[in-house]
Amino acid sequence: MKPLSRLRVSGLSGLGLLLAGLVYLWLYLPIMLLVMNSFNASKYGHSWQGFSWKWYEKLWGNSALIEAFTNSLTIASLAATGATLLGALLALSLHRYRFRLRKLSSGLVFVVLMSPDIVLAITFLIVFMALGIQLGFWSLLIAHITFCLPFVVITLYAQLRSFDPYLFEAAQDLGAPESAIFTRIVLPMLRPAIAASWLLSFTLSLDDVIISSFVTGPGYEILPIRVFSMVKVGVSPEVNVLATLLILISLVLVCLVPWLLKRKA
Amino acid sequence: MSEASAVVQLSSVTKRFEQQEVLREFSLSIHDGEFFTILGPSGCGKTTILRLIAGFEHADSGQVIIDGTDVSTLGAEKRSVNTVFQSYALFPHLTVFENVAFGLRMARVARTEIESRVKEVLEMVQLGDFAQRRPEQLSGGQRQRVAIARAVVNRPKVLLLDESLSALDYQLRLKMQSELKHLQRQLGITFVYVTHDQEEALSMSDRILVMHQGQPQQVGTPRQIYESPRNLFVASFIGETNVLNAKILRALDDYRYEAELEGRYQRIIHADRRYQPGDDVHVLLRPEDLRIEYLRDAGDKPGFVGEVKDRNYTGRTLDSIIELPDGLQLRSSEFFDEDDPDFDYSINERVWVDWVHGWEHVIPAENLNR
Amino acid sequence: MKFTPTFRQLAIWLSLSWLAVFVLVPHLLVLVTSFLTADPSNLAVWPLSLDAYARLWDPVYAGVLIDSLYLSLMATLCCLLVGYPFAFVLSRFSPGVRAVCLFLMIIPFWTNSLIRTYALKMLMGNKGLFNDTLLALGIIDAPIRMIYTEFAVIFGLTYILLPFMVLPLMASFDRLDRSLLEAARDLGANAWQRFWRIIVPLTMPGIIAGCLIVFLPAMGMFYVADLLGGARNLLLGNLIKNQFLVVRDWPFGSAASVALIVLMAVLLWAYFQANRRVSRRGGLEDENLT
Prior knowledge:
The complex is a heterotrimer.
Chain A: H1 2-9, H2 14-38, H3 54-61, H4 63-96, H5 102-114, H6 117-131, H7 137-162, H8 165-173, H9 178-207, H10 210-215, H11 223-233, H12 237-264
Helix pairs in contact in A: 2-12, 3-12, 4-7, 4-9, 4-11, 5-7, 7-9, 8-9
Chain B: E1 6-17, E2 20-31, E3 35-39, H1 46-54, E4 61-66, E5 69-70, E6 81-84, H2 96-106, H3 111-124, H4 140-152, E7 158-162, H5 170-187, E8 190-195, H6 198-204, E9 207-212, E10 215-220, H7 222-227, H8 232-237, E11 242-251, E12 256-261, E13 265-270, E14 280-285, E15 290-294, H9 295-298, E16 304-313, E17 317-323, E18 329-335, E19 350-355, E20 361-364
Chain C: H1 4-34, E1 37-39, E2 43-45, H2 51-56, H3 59-92, H4 95-106, H5 113-124, H6 129-137, H7 150-175, H8 178-186, H9 191-202, H10 204-218, H11 222-228, H12 236-246, H13 250-278
Antiparallel strand pairs in C: 1-2
């Protein structure tokens, strides 16, 4: 057991490992319960009453919930893509260019990062009202892109700063124009950070409840809003099924991303 | 080396890191009040020795004895030695004063005494006015001094210094070298200094231990190490050396032998131990042991004749590379002659070269890949 | 740099105008709205007034404020107590193991925090797993009432927000120079003294950053209070949400948010002070940005 011997070297006691294990158990206990209950014939999940697919069938019949589910995935992937693109531009201009409003840009990124979700939520709501933007798909997308933005900027900016600054000068010295520096040096080197940013944004978007509650509209419902109205009233086993499917999708994605990265490299 | 005067003693210490043996059956004793340097290339185990003495590492077997007490199982916080770290390891959240006072506070020294002792030691390292600064506001040399002050204020039996000057630039390093030496005399504390810089070791130490691949190579005064290296590693690690292969032909008396150098020159060499006819030896010649003369001035004195391949003026010395007919290259270093500033040889000029007899150093032959 | 002008302008102007329209202007609008007069049909109208702020002192709302401060503080403390040793343990792992551990912490996010809160609700119910286990173990004779208590809300907030505490703490532990601990040991400090005099002060930026990232959002998590705390208005988030989406008193909701922003500003100021004390570098990774 190599990892264990390394642990002993760094002076970790069994107590520390026990603690870490307990924290993970605690983090996963509710999720394991959801997955288990998605197969439980009992509606209330208090006890195991046999294996059943019936909640999966019931979900299949609940078209509103399925629509909310696909809407959530759509918003999350579009928002992650948008935030990554915009964040890459922002990180790059903060890193490479000196412009008058640079301090303002970085300050605003910091504001988004630090503002509690509830504050961001009402700022979005107010501005959409003021601009006359209909609450629904576009408002959700804009809000999600914006609140994911700082995480992308921080990830990419940190990565850019870790590069040897002479790399860019070396490329220039060897005759590369700015466009070539961007496409042949910056982008390939940033690829892992870009993937990480996208994944992080996707995750945050999928996890969000507060902001979505404020900027969602009747025409475009996403998962947390739908689920909120269901579970406030009572128990909904379909939600267990949804959670299980989400975990399944995430596991597939998690396994897929390193594989995709490796293939490209 | 009497056991009584040893303030630090390591006996048969073996230390492994993840199956790799860094030190094996290693023994060492450091005298009270000396400036002891452990010199060697990186990875030779010198820092491990220091950390074993400090108590950051514990030996797998063997003993560490400090001031007559076996401390092998004690942690660093319980040993009466202090360390000046390579990175200085100054606490960034504390002022200079609080950094220096840290050890005294840990030892629950009275407040007034802390005040006076910290002040005194800060004066000593010329940082009296910097007590309220933070480490980040100091220059490299000042940080170095705080690190030293923080260690010596505890009046340790032994002060351990880990490559402590390596982060400074050349001029500052020279200055700190003499300050360290001065401080050591003033305090009378034993200093154990670890470095890979042979010049630093020679100029500061009372005694030097040369390490290589976890093995002690030689312990001695700087002069012994430089003039009578015990093996090729020591000879080549410390200063430049010309190595000539030789075979003993016959003994003239106890310490003088007739020998054949490089298979073609028969010469008389002086050795500090006995050899038998037929023994292979190395004759070590420092560049400054060599003398060069114009061929016409040398006449037919015994010596080598070679061609000057390179000349290099360093300010104090004139360094030459002379190639002998069989391709062997000798490096020589002559003091610049003020009386004859134009004195010089031209490249490819044939010259006579020989060493000052008695200055050569002879060691038993080692396997050399040449 | 022939390509630069266009690319450069595109990069700067696109990102800057996005930030201006969707961050700067909205925040200013909230500030303005908080000084307007509430109007049932038009949400917020002139003239300017301080009514909204005056109402914040109303005992009913001040009570909500104090309640939510208390609940958030308790959740923050719990996160710190669990997260600090946890982050310490994680920071001791080799980089590979640590990456896996971090990923394991992110995966629960994929189920959406609302669904996880719902799972907690089932765990803490009178017939939930917690009570069942305690009953089976014989620790209690009758189910304890956990759901719809303040304890449940604190538990839920801690559960949802723990990763946000752990991340900055890990960054702090990463930056902690191990030779400083050796130096302290060398100077005679025992484990306890090393912890309080070196480790805690030097990880203070991480502690404060973590607390900031947990404490402020905790006050906004209305769904945790709704699902686990019952129907009462427990958190500032519930209050704000009600004002905006139910009662439609936007100036008052905005004023409550401004109060939250002011609180955030004060805490941020404290954070930067602490950060400066410890070192020029450290703390939130983004500080290079600002």
